[in-house]
Amino acid sequence: MTTPEFASNRDNFCYRHPDRQSFVLCQRCLRTICGECQTPAAVGVICPECMKAERKNRTPAQKRAERRWGGGRGPAMAITRSGRPVVTYALIAVTSLIGLLQLIPGIGNAITQQMVFAAAYLFPDLSGLPFEPWRLLTAVFAHGGFVHLALNMLALFMIGQSLEPMLGRARFLALYLISGLGGSVMVAILDPSQPTVGASGAIFGMMAALLIIGRHIGANVTGLLVILGINFVYGLLFGGGRISWQAHLGGLVVGALIAYILVKTKRREQRIWQILALSAVTVALLVAVFVVPPLIILA
């Protein structure tokens, strides 16, 4: 029950519907709004007037992105999504949990050994190790230390908040996993003897995708290009064997390819071609990783 003082205070009622009580405030103007007037935003909800103002103040690049990538109207496939980037949060939660378990003395090393990827696990006849192809992906969720984990999860959080709503949850997850797979495949091809863990391949894939999509919609991607270049060159020249530049390269190439596919098949009637193209990339990666490393090892 509400008290007379509550009922007499107009701030406790929706400003657009004075007969509806509410305890929710618009995150922009801080006025009370009912459920009908709430629009999900990056943080909390906003009212229709603030949403209208936000749309009016969008940059030309943002407007082009809305026309080309979403909205649910016309021939363009509705790729832009509202709501929270739940896949990003889920990936961070799962990866962080595994990373923290890896830090526990006694069991951490055992967990790492069960998830690390090396090409030897794909060729039991040559290595004597068991055949465990799932390590191509499990390595993406394990890390080599707290700093490694923290930096990758920070990058995932920052990029995922922008990229997941733009692509949609399923496409974003496909981008992340296939890019991570690409990183493992590139390690197996370029350095079959090197074991690897970490989400860096998937992170570089997301960065490449954001770069490709940004160029497609006319956004200024110079800053992202510089950051991407610095990170890759640093891993290549100064990693000292601790940073797998091969995984970075694999994720970068595969992420860019996936983004190109998504850009070229964004219309609703092209959805089947999009699925087939992404499946073809995945199959090509698996064929490459099972064919090329043995040739290198036996050479």
What are the key terms here?
single chain, 299 residues, mainly alpha, Rhomboid-like fold, 2 domains, two-stranded antiparallel ribbon, 13 helices, 61% helix, elongated
Order of helices and strands: HEEHHHHHHHHHHHH
Strand order of the largest sheet: 1-2
On the 0 to 100 scale, the average pLDDT is: 81
**CATH architecture name of the largest domain:** Up-down Bundle
> In CATH terms, what is the fold-level topology of the largest domain?
Rhomboid-like fold
Shape: elongated
Question: What separation lies between the terminal Cα atoms?
Answer: 80 Å
The structural domain count equals 2
In the CATH scheme, the class of the largest domain would be Mainly Alpha
CATH superfamily of the largest domain: Rhomboid-like
Q: Which secondary-structure class do the elements indicate? A: mainly alpha
**Continuous helix count:** 13
Poorly predicted segments? 71-82
Q: Taking Cα atoms only, what radius of gyration do you get, to the nearest Å?
A: 23 Å
Strand content: under 5%
Question: Which secondary structure elements does this structure contain, and how are they paired or packed?
Answer:
Blueprint: H1 4-8, E1 39-40, E2 45-46, H2 48-56, H3 60-69, H4 86-102, H5 108-115, H6 124-127, H7 135-138, H8 146-167, H9 169-190, H10 200-216, H11 222-238, H12 245-264, H13 271-298
Antiparallel strand pairs: 1-2
Please describe what this structure looks like:
There is one protein chain. The chain is mainly alpha-helical. The chain contains 13 helices and 2 strands, in the order αββαααααααααααα. The protein is elongated and about 75 Å long.
